[in-house]
TrEMBL record:
Top-level EC class: oxidoreductase
Family in the record: Belongs to the aldo/keto reductase family.
Superkingdom, natural source: Bacteria
Gene that encodes the chain: yvgN_1
Keywords from the named record: NADP, Oxidoreductase
PROSITE patterns: ALDOKETO_REDUCTASE_1, ALDOKETO_REDUCTASE_2
Site, Lowers pKa of active site Tyr: residue positions: 77
Residues annotated as domain NADP-dependent oxidoreductase: 18-271
Ligand binding (substrate): 110
Listed name of the protein: Oxidoreductase, aldo/keto reductase
Pfam families in the cross-refs: Aldo_ket_red
EC number annotated for this UniProt entry: 1.1.1.-
Length: 272
């Protein structure tokens, strides 16, 4: 059975396909064609975001693919800059309209702080209260059935703990950057301890792993490509990979990861 048919089970027992198609940095036209092609070739999980400005294209691809809506898992995100309850409510409504769907499978807070201070935050402003307000909007949409699962993205332990301390429904997913050479075992374990599935975006480091001789050597030992090895690496850590491609050949190849990396090779990749 293809890994495209396998799932992780979230805390609320909703099943989420183990591999998703990422659409970050995809133009609407590219996102449409990539999503439609992926769905026509077995993918059942697509990841978009309001900030990507391609939700409408993804939604059209869902309909044009001919795949029943209930068979597809769709993720979108509330922009990181929106930090009030009402802004979050409005964002969810806009995403539903853009996707043209009666429900969304997963909605995430895109980041705990606005992007402009995610890396350079001299005042160390945490936005804890604001994230609680946004989370309340997500909880309400979840409890009403508009959203099937809710979560966060780019949240560290303290950001997550803040939500835990003030929520009725805990996050079910934390989507973070995770790839060979950029791991976070402490955060990964913290999420696992709290029944949060970790999704890994940029599993190939937006292409930067392709020139790595050490990774290439291991991939060749399995007669696989570097992207396939990188995607498999995440799966063996029980992380859901979200590889992005707009090329049909690569979309197909990224799903051909039904092999096993040895414990020795996993350990070597861990320390790169």
């Amino acid at each position: 059975m293809s890994l495209l048919n396998e799932t992780f089970t979230l805390k609320n027992q909703i099943k989420i396909p183990k591999i998703g198609l990422g659409t970050w940095q995809s133009s609407p036209e590219d996102a449409y064609h990539a999503t439609k092609f992926a769905l026509e070739n077995g993918y059942r999980h697509v990841d978009t975001a309001a900030a990507y400005k391609n939700e409408a294209a993804v939604g059209k691809a869902l309909r044009d693919s001919g795949v029943p809506r209930e068979e597809i898992f769709v993720t979108t995100k509330i922009p990181a800059e929106l930090k009030s309850y009402q802004e979050a409510v409005d964002s969810i409504k806009r995403s539903m309209a853009e996707l043209d769907t009666e429900y969304i499978d997963l909605v995430l807070i895109h980041a705990p702080r606005p992007w402009k201070i995610m890396r350079d935050n001299p005042e160390q402003k945490k936005y804890f209260e604001e994230n609680i307000d946004v989370w309340k909007a997500l909880e309400e949409a979840y409890q009403s059935g508009l959203i099937k699962t809710i979560g966060v993205s780019n949240f560290d332990q303290d950001d997550l703990q803040n939500i835990f301390d003030h929520c009725d429904v805990k996050p079910m997913v934390n989507q973070i950057i995770y790839h060979i050479g950029k791991t976070n075992e402490e955060l990964l374990q913290f999420c696992k301890d709290n029944d949060i599935l970790v999704e890994g975006y940029s599993p190939i480091a937006t292409g930067r792993l392709l020139d790595n001789a050490d990774i290439k050597k291991i991939a060749e030992n399995y007669q696989r490509s570097i992207p396939q090895l990188s995607i498999r690496y995440l799966l063996q850590k029980d992380i859901l990979p979200l590889p992005k491609s707009v090329h049909e050949e690569y979309i197909l190849d990224n799903a051909k990861v039904d092999f096993t990396i040895s414990d020795e090779d996993m350990a070597f990749l861990d320390q790169l």
